[in-house]
Structures are given as C-alpha cells and as structure tokens.
C-alpha cells in the first residue's frame, strides 16, 4: 500500500478507527484547490475551443453544422459520461492524484491530436479521447477535497472548485479568442519537423501545451489520507438498498434529473453556438464574439453561483424545505426571458446586454447538486451523484449542441437561421424544466423530512 505522499493505493485508508489524524494545513488545502481549479479551467479550454473553429473545420472537412455539433457535443460527452461511473469507482480505490495526472496527460495529448486529424472520423476519435481523459478529473477531485477539508470548510472549497464551470467556460472563450485571433492572422503556419499546416490546426497544439505544466503542478500535490470509510458499507449487500432508494425517491429525483437535464440542454447548446451565432447574425468576428461572451460567462456565471447558494441557504434556514428547487425555478423565470430575447435582438450590443442579464440568473440553478445531497443518505451519495451527472451531462452536453444544429440544418435549412434554432430550444426546454421542478416540490420536501 502506498503512502499519503504518492504511490498507488491498493485500498482505501480509513480514518474511522482510533484517533482521527489531523487535517492538512489550510494554506496547503487551498493550494490543492487552486491546482485542481487550474486543471478544471484547462479542461474547459480544451473541451470548448472547437466551438470557435466551426467555420474553418466545416470548410476543411466539408461537413454540416450537425456534423460539427457531434464533434462539439456527442463525441466528447459519450465517453466523458459513460466512463465517469467506472472512473469514480477507480478513484475510490486507487491513488487519486495519479489518476488526475494520467487524465490531464491523456486529454492534452488527444487535444493536440485533433490538430493532426486528416478526416472527420479521425477528429471524432480524437474528441472521444479528450472525453476519456477529462472524465478522470472531477470524480477524483471531489474525493480528494473531502479528505483535505473538514466538514465546516468543505462546502467553501467545493464551491471554489465548482466556479471552474462558468469561470473555466469564460476563460476558455477569452483565451481561445486571443489564440484564434493571433494564429489565424496567417492562413498557414510552418511547424518544426512538420512543415506548413493550416493555422486552425495549430490552435489545438497551443491549448494542449499547458497540460504539461498542470501535470507538473499536480505532482506537488500529495495523495490525501482517506477518512471515515467503513468496509462494511461496501460489497454486494449495498446494491439492493441503493436500487430501493432510487425507487422510493423516484418523484423527487426524477424532477431534479429532468429539470437539470433540460437546463443543461439549453446551457450547453448556447455555449457551443453563441460565438457562431454572433458571426452569422451580426457579421461579428468569431474571436471577438468569443471574447465578450467569455467575459460574460466568467463574471456572470461566478456571481450567479454565489447568489444562488446564498439565497438557497437563507430560504432553507427559514424553514422552506424545497428552497433549493424554488431557487432553480427562479433562475429559469429570471434568466430565461433575457436569454430568449438575446437571440432576437437587432444588433450585437443589445444581444450581449441580454446575455449579461441572463447568465447571472441562469447559473443560480447550480444549487441543484446541493439539493441532491440533502435528500440522499450518506451511504448512497457518491453513486446517486455519479448517476445524476451521467444523465445531466449526457443530455445537456451530448444533445444540446446537436439539437440546435439539427434544427438549423433540417427545420430551417439555412445557416443564418441559427438564432431561431437557439430561440426555439430555449423557449421550449426552459419552461418545461420549470414545470417539472414545480411538480417535484412536494416529493422533495417529503423525502427531505425522511432523510432529516
């Protein structure tokens, strides 16, 4: 068995019996959060850079919006979500720091290989590889943070890591915009030992390169001691209870899963296509559109997470049992109309203004993951959370970009109609999500009482 300083662990180290070991120093703990957040941000850069390269990829490979959407969404999401479940199982039994290092190295290598893909099939396979690598990060990261921070400080640490979603998306767009702008200034670039290649292909190499730095930083992080595990809770005996739990809470869990999936469908679809929407609708340079949209996502998204969490905590403290679901519904009611309006604005400035109003409101829905923890017994939280993210990410990331592209290609049959595809998905999915969440209020409050 390895030590807390590094090597592979054959099994978990429990802090249940005897005197509990001391916690790592807070300064070191926040250093780990910073390194993991950097890895999370990089993962979004590598994940989303393709959405800024729609035009050159379509031209080079002679493909449609739907084919591009499969590269952005399904090619990545299929393996990202499917492998999240077994990788979470591995993270419970192996050295988590090393697992993350392997994941970062793999997704960086696969991102670089996107630049050398000579066909659609090769690019699709490389995007699947990016998904495989990134699937290793969050399951291991959440597990590590739980063993580094005591319960009274764990929520803050996880909140900072979770800000990597809007912050990482925004930084990806901002950094990606500068990279795209600088590299695409020349149509061809000479690479050492390779020769001249299309400029858009070198962008994948630029965004993959920081992966080496992140791997080196991760090697300065120690594998933390696993705390509070009970061997008796593992094994086949837990499976029937887990299935029974899902059946007993199917109404509340169904509302959460369905509501968040529909919100994710809209959010992932919008993030994937907004830069191209500005280019096609207003004739704006895609890198400039990505830059301003990235700033809106980074600032507005982070603010929305803080606002949503604060509002849910205060409402819940006043005795409103379904407070978190109500905040999720509120985020739709406040953020949905300006998002829909953004797609129909007569000029780019007004569209950006509407997006700036929409994103702080819409990202308040992030309290859904907190709601899930409140109604789930401790023995099942990891599995229910893994199942939750599997459904939500596969639906949102896998089908959000594709649905918008299918509407553009086959319903409207016009690239310039992208704005109406985004509007249609937003106008149908978000109201339906609000209805489903409302239908789950009573069941959630009932299950919360049973678990409390």
UniProtKB/TrEMBL annotation:
Ranges for domain Major facilitator superfamily (MFS) profile: 32-446
Location of the protein in the cell: Membrane
Organism: Sphingopyxis indica
Membrane topology value: Multi-pass membrane protein
GO molecular function: transmembrane transporter activity
Swiss-Prot/TrEMBL keywords: Membrane, Transmembrane, Transmembrane helix, Transport
InterPro entries assigned to the protein according to its UniProt record, in alphabetical order: MFS, MFS_dom, MFS_spinster-like, MFS_trans_sf
PANTHER family documented for this protein: PROTEIN SPINSTER (PTHR23505:SF79), SPINSTER (PTHR23505)
Gene3D superfamilies: MFS general substrate transporter like domains
CDD domains: MFS_spinster_like
Pfam families membership: MFS_1 (PF07690)
Top-level division of the source organism's lineage: Bacteria
The protein's name in its UniProt record: Predicted arabinose efflux permease, MFS family
